[in-house]
Amino acid sequence: MPAAPAPWRTLLDRALRENPIRPDAGYLQLATVRADGRPANRTIFFRGMLDPGDRILFTTNLYSAKVGELTAQPYAAACWHFLATREQFRLDGRVELVGAAHSDAALRAERARVWKEKREDSRQTFAWPRPGLPREPDAAFAVPPSDPDAPAPNFLLCVLSLEEVDYIDLRPLPHLRWHYRRQGASGWSAEAWNP
Ligand SMILES: Cc1cc2nc3c(=O)[nH]c(=O)nc-3n(C[C@H](O)[C@H](O)[C@H](O)COP(=O)(O)O)c2cc1C
After folding, report:
1. Ligand 1 centroid to 1 CA: how many Å?
2. CA distance 125 to 152
3. Is the pTM of this model over 0.90?
4. 44 Cα–ligand 1 center, Å
5. Contact assessment for residue 127 and residue 146, using Cβ atoms and an 8 Å cutoff
6. Ligand 1 test: best mutation among 42, 59, 95, most atoms within 8 Å of CB?
7. DSSP, residue by residue, 173-185
8. Picking from 1-5, 7-11, 108-112, 116-120, which range would have the lowest pLDDT averaged per residue?
């Protein structure tokens, strides 16, 4: 029997319908843990969800710092603010990195689909010099057109599988807060908390 959708998905789907995806709602912040135990945080672009709906997709460069951090410590926390509707989702879970050699064929196919769906200028960034190294001359960033059917070897699809969701809605007074926790493989608990 297919797993039931997570209960917080109704709220997130509504927030995505009611907030313009660009420029406001398509971006979230993702925090990871560095090797020295300090947090690292950055903006990422939301690339969709995998069914039954509690896996969030984003993409990144194999050579970015977050990949080393997630390889050592796969747990991450994302924060997603919806400006127009005054809602926030705090999303905790584990990130799986999907490259060309990933064992799951469905995830490899998803990686190829997302690569193809990307804009050309975004695909070309994967042929740029390695991120986080001293700046190279502009000429090094003049790269040939990408192949939409051949994901760059350093292109990673990242799958954030959620385990805990903390939701707050600032529109009603008092504010609304729900806490959701994954229970086993397919279920979620939901509890109303004081905001
Ligand atoms: C609006 C916006 C969207 C971004 N989207 C992504 C993204 O989807 N994936 C990504 O790896 N970096 C994205 N970045 C860049 C990251 O915020 C970050 O600077 C870069 O990934 C390096 O992070 P790291 O050194 O912690 O790995 C985006 C930046 C901005 C400002």
Report:
1. 37
2. 10
3. yes
4. 5
5. yes
6. 42
7. SSPEEEEEEEETT
8. 1-5
Per residue in 134-171, pLDDT (tens digit) is: 999 999 999 999 999 999 999 999 999 999 999 999 99
The CATH class, in words, for 9-192 is mainly beta
**Measured in angstroms, how far is the CA atom of residue 145 from the centroid of ligand 1?**
21
Burial class (CB in 10 A: 0-12, 13-18, 19+), 89: buried
Q: Where are the beta strands (DSSP E) in the chain?
A: 27-33, 39-45, 49-50, 55-61, 75-82, 87-98, 155-169, 176-183, 187-192
Residue with tokens 């127009």: 84
pLDDT more than 90, % of the chain: 85
Predicted local distance difference test score (pLDDT) of residue 128: 98
Query: Which runs of consecutive H residues, i.e. helices, occur in 5-136?
Result: 9-18, 65-72, 105-117, 120-124
